[in-house]
Write a structure and sequence with these properties.
The chain contains no helices and 11 strands. The chain has about 110 residues and is mainly β. The radius of gyration is 13 Å and the shape is globular. Strand 4 and strand 5 form a beta hairpin.
């Protein structure tokens, strides 16, 4: 059974930092591309950052220079380090893994107060 479990969300003030984690099980983690997406209230889910199995990264323009995606294959975990958080970063953050088939976690809520 595949599971992606996000953690690390919470309530922070603008300018602060958070690190999200996505712990995977039931997949060959090293073969999967990983991604972080977010969905703010009333908005569509959007891409935040992705990292391929080979380590290539891609970021949404809105988070470039503030967020860093990484992965630790031995721990089967992906991370999203977020710095200089803004109120507009408030959303539920979801982890996705894909290799022929995609899997999603249930999300973790990040709330940034001004």
């Amino acid at each position: 059974q595949v599971q992606l479990v996000e953690s690390g969300g919470g309530l922070v003030q603008a300018g602060e930092s958070l690190r999200l984690s996505c712990a995977a099980s039931g997949i060959i983690f090293s073969s999967n591309d990983m991604g972080w997406y977010r969905q703010a209230p009333g908005k569509q889910r959007e891409l935040v950052a992705t990292i391929t199995s080979g380590g290539r990264t891609n970021y949404a323009d809105s988070v470039k220079g503030r967020f860093t995606i990484s992965r630790h294959n031995a721990k089967a975990t992906a991370y999203l380090q977020m710095h200089n958080l803004k109120p507009e970063d408030t959303a539920v953050y979801y982890c996705k893994a894909w290799y022929r088939v995609e899997y999603w976690g249930k999300g973790t809520l990040v709330t940034v107060s001004s």
